[in-house]
Structures are given as structure tokens and as C-alpha cells.
Amino acid sequence: MTSAAHDEASADGDGGPALEAHHAEHESTGVENRKLAMWAFLSSEFLFFGALITNYLLYSSRDFAQGPTPAQIYDIPFTSVSSFVLLMSSLTMVLAHNAVSRGDQGATRTWLLATAMLGSVFLAGQVFEFTEFITLEGMTLRTNPAASAFYVLTGFHGTHVAIGVIMLLSLFGLSKRLGGLSDKQFLNLELVGLYWHFVDIIWIVIFTVVYLLTAVPGAG
Amino acid sequence: MTAIADRPTTIFRRPTAETGFWSWITSVDHKKVGIMYGYTAFIFFIVGGLEALLLRIHLASAESNFLSAADYNGLFTTHAVTMIFLVVMPMSAAFMNYLIPLMIGARDVAFPRLNALSYWIFLFGGIFLYSGLLFSGITAPTGVAGIPGNLDPTDTRSFGALPDGGWFMYQPNAGADFSPSTSLDFAVIGLQILGIASLISSVNFIVTFFNLRAKGMRLLRVPVFIWMTLVVAFLLLFSLPIIAIALFMVMFDRQFGTLFFDATAGGDPILWQHLFWLFGHPEVYILILPAMGIVSEILPVFSRKPLFGYAAIVFAGAAIGFLGFGVWAHHMFASGITTVAQAGFGLTTMTIAIPTGVKIFNWLGTMWLGRIKLKTPMLFAIGFIAMFTIGGLSGVTHSVVPSDWQQTDTYYIVAHFHYVLFGGSILGIFGGLYYWFPKLTGRMMNDRIGKVHFWLWFIGFNMTFAPMHWLGLQGMIRRTWRYDPSLEFWNQIVSVGAFVIAIGLLVFIYNFWTSKRRGEIAGMDPWDARTLEWAIPNPTPAHNFSVVPTVHTLDDFWHQKYDEDEEGRPVRKKEADDHVAHLGEIGNHPPVPVHLPNPSYFPVVMAAGLPLIGYGIIFHTSALGKALIVVGVLISLVALIGWGAEPLEEPHSPLAGAH
Questions:
Q1: From CA A1, how far away is CA B594, in angstroms rounded?
Q2: B552 and chain A: CB distance < 8 Å anywhere?
Q3: Which of A29, B129, B200, B216 is the most core-located residue (most Cβ within 10 A)?
């Protein structure tokens, strides 16, 4: 009974061995609290990006007095490479997850770092892209609504990637400091992994819909 | 793996106060958080009410100069924003916080610290919104300036930079060109902050609902109020990101010169309307569904019958939630959307009357042939049904497009939404307050004064808002500072009604204050109620349930007390009184010690960073603004790290608990 009371109060989701007793006490989905919360949050994020992508699509099909529009200046080969880099980071994230479930702390740290590095390379690519667009092509936030929509959409995605990189580096630092990730921290890695895959999936949609489908052939 | 520590060391020492100021600031107890939500929202209710009284004093005469036009704009905007985001939503959140764990048989919500964080973000967001008062005219936002605003710049303002673009902030009127002062920035960023609070609570409540129900409480044994909070949580989860994007777009337009809503550069102001109402219509149900849930709890108790058609009410609530996402353009029939869209949205608007009608008939069916006890909560519940039905019917008239064109932007609309928001939400919420007051305080509200309160409100409410129907049909437009003198008579009736409501509120405050200190002791189960929260003592002990309950039926507590005879009438069990007394005994003296989450500084510290970031964005052109952004981010970041390093509860030995 004492342990049951304990589980109840520790519902903030520390996972671990307390979990089984916890389930015995409640009608539950069987999904750990924090993981369920992350799924709920990500479902909200889909609408966040859905609204941003819709904005862009609305404006991308219009003509503006002042140019250029993003579709006229996309560098598809370059963005393809940076998209590939981001997608590979999902692979390394899976490898990190796999390593920690095998209890291989060294490999976990390696793959966490690799994921963060790939994310950073993607961000660097985005900074490069923005700089090119602004300085060479003369398309700023204030050029036309399509440009505004493009920068705000990709900027928010980049912010999400940056937050993901910070979370990955935090896990890496935590593992370094504590000598590894315990059973309780395992869930943290899973949550970061969910978030990271989400950010990648959104990028697949953005790259396909915002870049490939609206790009003007022969431009860039 | 044995060498691996679970957590690094923490930043602050754990707060230890159990009473007094700091115990509230650092509390993560859902009951304390709920009470803080309630008091804060009540203070905003008084502020929003005073704003309404000022507006009504002004409008008592057709050519009044009581308020300047600029102040009038500021007051009607702030009145709306306050009542929607700082009163009805947080008052509903107060009930959700306090009651969800109690009604599902849990010791707290799934994430107690996140719950406290929601409250603090809400409080700071509300203060941020109102802090525009202090900043009048310090700087105008950058952006595309040069075009004069919508009012004479020499117009005097007594209320500083209160937001003045209407709560819907239509573009381009609320854009930088036509509203160049900082006032709207406080609204735009303030609402963004409040949205974060709501998003966090919605995730928290969803997880609590799905993972923390007591053993045996299957989905169709969950009380209707809890079901409605789940629907609301999903509505928030899916509508808040849309308004977040829309507010970001306005913020970027106003602060950083993007062109989303600038028609001269090819931007699309109608897009704002779509995004705003795609959030705004689900928001309407976010405001009304909790009150519907409260009424669904009150009616069976005071009719001494089970809720008629429990499953139908639950599914109708869910259906309202789904349909609520498909009707937004009925707010935009006059904005030039295509005929097909008008017909489509007219039809979906009509269909939403079906689940709403299902609920109304179920409530009536609950009362039908019941042994009705007309206590104050029941009066409020019946008042809710009557007033909400009127508001709902005038709502259906909006689905008839040609009729809607006539009504758009007239007082008819004002009448409609006050019937659903005041006659609906507020009456429901106050009924709930009378009903659960013994749960909060252990004492009863004075029933006679409560009835005086009800009748003052019921009469004052109808005096205030019923004449608005015909004023609107006679052509009195909304948000008007001047109107035709032929409409003066009914406007004076309306203004008198507003003061009757104010007197009713004073009666309530007196009743609340005296009952809280000297009210009759409630004891166990004062209403002979049906749901789990009444199976524990009043006021609720800190640990909620001494023994986590096991549920066998819907209305489990009722069935612990009552059997049925051959004709289905309830017969009180012989042992019922002993059983309830026994529950009270156990409830106050848990057989084994219960460990609760420890208080924490981090929620309030983390929330404190957000308004600083908000001020920083408004004044981002100055060095101080940039510094504020950095400081705000740092404060929240430090709190985040400390939060991660601090366990929810201090370790305790299982052996110690056995003593």
C-alpha cells in the first residue's frame, strides 16, 4: 500500500520499476505519462506547422509587385543535400536509442553527439541559405508576403531543430557527468527521439511541398 | 549500471513552507493551484465588470462624452479580452484543476509542477496584458509607419495603452499602420503567453484523464464534467497552435515588417479572419463546455435521479467538439467569401444545433419527474438551461446567411454571445461554485442570500441583454461610441440592468466572505451527491484519498448509499449513514502515510521569464529591450535546468512509511 501511494504521487512520470504497481492502481492506457504528453504535444505541433505551411502555399501562388519570391530562387540541389543530412540524423537518433537499450553508454554518447552534429550542419545550411537569399538575391522578410511566409515557416522549423540540438547536447552532457544514462533517463532519450523524428518528418513535408512543388523550373 | 546516478544535484534548496505566502507560491497541489486560478479569475471578473459599467454609463445617453472615443475603444476591447481569456477560461480551469483528480479518484494531476507552471504563466500573462496601462505612448512599434491611425491622434486617453482593436484584432485595422501605439502589442503578446498556459494544461489534463482514473472507472463511468474537460483539452490542443501562428504573424508584421496582412504589398487581411476564427469558434466551445459539464453534475443531484441519457450527453459533447472545427466561416459571412462557402458553413452551423439540442433535452429529461430540490446551485443550473437555450436559438439564426448579413456587427450579436457566455458559462460556473463551496471550505454557502444573488442576476441579466436583441434588429451597430437618439430608451434600460448585475455580484461577494468564515459546517456529503469527490471529507484533505477508490458503476458513490426498489426508485440502504461516517473517518486518518509531491520554486521562476521576453520584443529596437529578451530567456532556462535536476518528491524510505 505504501508503495502504491508512492507511485500515485510520483505520477510526474519517473518511469522505472514503480510503473507496474502504478498500472495496477489505475485504469491506464499503459503508455507512460510523459510519453503520452509528448504525443499530445506533437499532435498540437502538427497544426502549428500545418498553419505555417498553408500560409506559405496561399501566398506562393500569387503575383507580387516586388520580387523575387522564394520559388524563383530556390537552390534545390543544395537544399536536397541539407535535407539528406537531417534525415540521416534520424538514423543516428535510432542508433543512440538502440545503444542505450543495450546498455552501451559509450555508443549512446557517440550517436547522440552525431545526431546533434548533423542537426547543426543542417542549421548551418539554413543560415547559409538565408544569407544567400538576402545578400545575393535581395529577398528579405519585407520583400513580399511569400518571402515573409517562407522565412517565418523555415525559421520556426530551424528554431525547432535548434531546440532539439540543445536537448541532445543536454542528454550528452548528462550522460558524461553521471557516467551514463540510468533507466529513468532512458525515457528522456526516448522523448527527445520522438521530438527529433517529428522535426524530421515536418521537414520532409516542407521540402516536398514548399520547395519541390512550388519551385519554378530552371530558376535558382 | 549501479554506478549511474539518477539525477544531478539541484539549484535551489527545496522550499519547505507548509502554510502562508510561500506555501502558495511554491505549491504544486492541484487544489491550491485551482483555488489560485479561481481567486485570480475572480479579480479579473471584477475588473472586466467595472469596464462594462463604464461602457454602460457612457452608452446611457446617445451623445455622451463620458468616455473619449479612444478610451471607449480601449475599454470594450479589454472588457472582451478580460472576460474571455482572464475570466471564463481560468474560472473553468479552476474547476478542472480542483475537481479532475477528485472526480476520477486520483491524488493529483499527471504533472503537478506543470500544473503550477500553467497557473503562473496565466497570471503573468494577464498582468502583462494589463501592463499596457503603464506604457502609454512610450514608443510606437517599428514597421510600416506613416499612415495615421483610426482615431484623431489628439483624442485624449485616460486609460493609457489599453488594447483597442477589438478582441478579434481584425487586420489591417489592428496592424501597425492603423494602430501604431504599443497597445495592441500588449494584447498580441499577452494572448500568446496565455496560450502557452492553456496548452500546457490541456496536455496535462489529457494525460491525467487517460492514465490516472481510479481502478474500475472505465471510460463510460467518468463523470460528465470530466468528459467535457477532455473535449475542451483537445479543442485547446488543436486550436491554440493556429491562433499562435496567427498572433506570430501579426507580431512579425507589427515588429519586424513582414507583409502578411498588408494589402498594399499583396498581403491578405482575410487570411487573418480565417485563422482567427479557426481558433475563435472552437474557443466558443472551450468557454461553454465546462459549464455544460458543471450543470450536468448539478442537475442529477438536485433532481435525485441519474443523468438522463449519460452516454448521449458525452457523445453530444464530443460531437460539438468535432463540429466546432467546421463552422468558423459563419463569423465571416459579410467578408465576401464565396456563395458555396456561405451555404456550406451555414449548413454545418445548423448541424451543430443537433448535439446541443440533445444535451438540452437530456437535462430536461433529468429533471422530469425528479424530486427537485430548489437549492441555489439548482437555480443557477435551471437558469443556465433557459438562458443558454435562448442564446443557442439566436445562434441558429446566424446560420441563415441573408439574415446574418443583417445582424453582422449589430447589438443582436452582442445579445447572442452574452446569452451564451454570461447566461451560459457564468451562470454555470457560479452554480458550480455554490455546489462545490463545501468541498473547498467545509462550510455551506448561505442559501437564502444565494437565491437573492441568483434572482438579482437573472433579472439584471435579462434587463441588460434582452433589449440588445431588438436594439440590434433596429440597426444599432456594435462598438459604437455614438448612436441614434431614438434608441436611447432601451439603452438606458440596458445600463440599469448592468448595475443590477453589479449589485448581485456584491451580494455574492458578501455571501462568499461571510459563509467562508461563519457558514454552517457542511460535514460529509451535504448534498446527498453521486460522484467520488463527495466520498471524502470536506474540506478536501491534502492527500485527497486515503485509500485510492475502486469504482464499480457510474455514480459510484450514490450506489454505495442507495438500492433500487422494484419500480426503480432509489431506497437508501440501512447502513448508508454509517458507511458515509466511516468514509469520513478514514478520509481524515489515512491508514498508511501518503507521500505527496514536494513544493517547488521552479514553476513560478520559469513563468517569470516569459513577460520579460514579451517586453523585450515590444521594445526590441532599444538596447534595454534586447537585454530584457536575454534576461528573460536566461531566467526560464535556469529554471528549466533546475526543474530537470529536482525530483518531484524527496526520496523516502518505504520502511519509514510502515511505522
A1: 9
A2: no
A3: B129
Q: For B477, left (φ over 0), alpha (ψ -120 to 50), or beta?
A: beta
Q: By the 8 A CB rule, do B129 and B190 touch? A: yes
CB distance from A2 to chain B under 8 Å?
yes
Is B647 in Cβ contact with A3 (below 8 Å)?
Answer: no
Q: Pick from A5, A9, A58: which is nearest to B268 by CB?
A: A58
ipTM: 0.91
Taking alpha carbons only, the member of A81, A85, A116 closest to residue A193 is: A116
Residue positions counted in chain A: 220
Cross-chain CB nearest to B4 (options A3, A4, A182): A182
Report which of B245, B399, B222, B240 is spatially closest to residue B314, judged by C-alpha positions: B222
Minimal C-alpha gap between A152 and chain B (Å): 8
Instruction: Go through the domains of chain A in sequence order and give each one's CATH number.
Output: 1-30 (no CATH), 34-212 (1.20.120.80)
- Which residues 103-132 on chain A approach chain B with CB closer than 8 angstroms? 103
Q: What is the mean pLDDT of chain B?
A: 90
Q: How far is CA A12 from CA A33, B119, B649, in A?
A: 7, 17, 9
Distance, CA of B586 to CA of A68 (rounded, Å):
74
B-chain residue closest to A48, CA distance: B241
C-alpha cell at B183: 497597445
| Confidence (pLDDT) at B11 | 66
**pLDDT, tens digit (0-9, with 9 covering 90-100), for A51-92:** 999 999 999 988 898 889 999 999 999 999 999 999 999 999
Chain A partners of B548 at a C-beta cutoff of 8 Å?
4-5, 8, 25
Give every CB contact of residue A30 below 8 A, 6+ residues apart in sequence.
A23
Q: Are B538 and B524 in contact (CB under 8 A)?
A: yes
Do residues B381 and B431 make contact, with C-beta atoms less than 8 angstroms apart? yes
- Flag whether residue A174 sits within 8 Å of chain B, measured between CB atoms: yes
Q: Give B596 to chain A, closest Cα distance, Å.
A: 5
Taking CB atoms and an 8 Å limit, are B238 and A10 in contact across chains? Answer: no
Question: DSSP H helical segments within B162-268, as ranges?
Answer: 183-211, 224-256
CA dist B395 and B390 (Å) reads 8
pLDDT score of A12 more than 80:
no
- Chain-centroid distance of CA A126 in Å reads 14
- The whole-angstrom separation of Cα B214 and Cα B81 is 37
Read off the C-alpha cell for A220.
535558382
Q: Does B256 touch chain A (CB under 8 A)?
A: yes
Strands B213-214 and B562-564: unpaired
Higher pLDDT, B38 or B569: B38
**Residue B580, min C-alpha distance to chain A (Å):** 22
How many Å apart are CA B36 and CA B34, to the nearest integer?
A: 5
Residue B128 has phi, psi (to 5 degrees) of -60, -45
- Provide the whole-model pTM: 0.92
Q: Helices B427-441 & B89-104, crossing angle to 10 degrees?
A: 50
| Average pLDDT of the residues in B119-129 | 96
pLDDT of residue B139: 40
Q: Is the pLDDT of residue A117 over 80?
A: yes
Nearest to B207 among A14, A27, A37 (CB): A37
Q: Which of A1, A3, A144 sits opposite B259 (nearest CB)?
A: A144
Question: Is B177 an 8 Å CB contact of chain A?
Answer: no
